[in-house]
Amino acid sequence: MPVYRPEDLFRLDGRTVVVTGGLGSVGMGLVRTLSYYGADVILVDLLPSPSEETCEVLKTVASTHKREVSYISCDVTSEESVLDAFKKIESTASIDNFRKIMEINVTGTFLCARAMARIMHRQKVSGSIVMFASMSATNVNKGVDTCAYNTSKSAVLQLARSLAAEWGHDGEHPPIRVNTVSPGYIMTPMTRPTFEEFPELQKLWQEGNMLGRMSTVDEHQSSVVFLLSDGSSYVTATDLRADAGHCSW
Fold first, then answer.
1. Are strands 176-183 and 127-132 parallel, antiparallel or unpaired?
2. I want to staple 245 with a disulfide (CB 3.0 to 4.6 A). Which of 67, 152, 210, 241 is the partner?
3. Annotated catalytic, 185?
4. What pLDDT shows up at residue 93?
């Protein structure tokens, strides 16, 4: 009789995970975590190729965990680019700014999810899709004007619920679970310079949650692993919000 280990529920061996926005702080954190749990990882981002430094990091991660880690350049606002990228995966505050943010965060997310679902349907396999929303989908950010961002992340929540309904039990294909992760404020190389210039903004944001601090990239890895793994096999159309209670005030 095999020995039961609860941690095995979170293993991702034999699975390939596609991480869009893969060269950002969260994406680079995920490649380490997902590889550790046994997944092969394909990073998707806009740059033609990662920097030499990033390439070395990816090689080290792949070697350490004996996983495949690869990169595909893709403009997620272009359907043609997304379709081309996923073919490769299968085989191996002005109105302009508002529209761009909506295109990236909503249209881009939809195009990538649809392309991935088509692969799963074609190969007759079930799977899990995790989208990044934000606590900003529920609450308005204080001290900054982020109308487009907040709106786009709210749309991602409903997009995930809708696709979960469409792909969960259509009678023709194995089920696909679709969920979202909604992080609270994260300290990253992108936010740190802003806080150095406007320390009062960091104070405002930290005092807005129940733990009185910013989160780190590493604190959001386990949410994604959980939603991808068999440990969440009965979880779909759900938002996992990790915001230190910010939205509960």
1. parallel
2. 210
3. no
4. 53
47-94 pLDDT, tens digit each? 999 999 999 999 999 999 999 999 999 999 999 999 999 988 887 756
Tokens representing residue 57 in the block: 């990091």
User: Quick check: is 249 in a domain?
Assistant: no
Residues 114, 76, single domain; the answer is no
Does residue 233 sit in the same domain as residue 206? yes
CA distance 73 to 68: 17
- pTM of the predicted protein model: 0.83
Q: Which domain holds residue 34?
A: 6-89
* Per-position b or e across 69-97, b if 16+ CB within 10 A of its CB: bbbbbbbbbeeebbebbbeebeeeeeeee
Do 22 and 118 belong together in one domain?
Answer: no
Q: Which of 37, 71, 153, 185 is catalytic?
A: 153
| Domain boundary residue, one of 34, 59, 89 | 89
Instruction: Tell which residue, 128, 186, 126, 179, has the closest CA to residue 156.
Output: 179
37 is catalytic: no
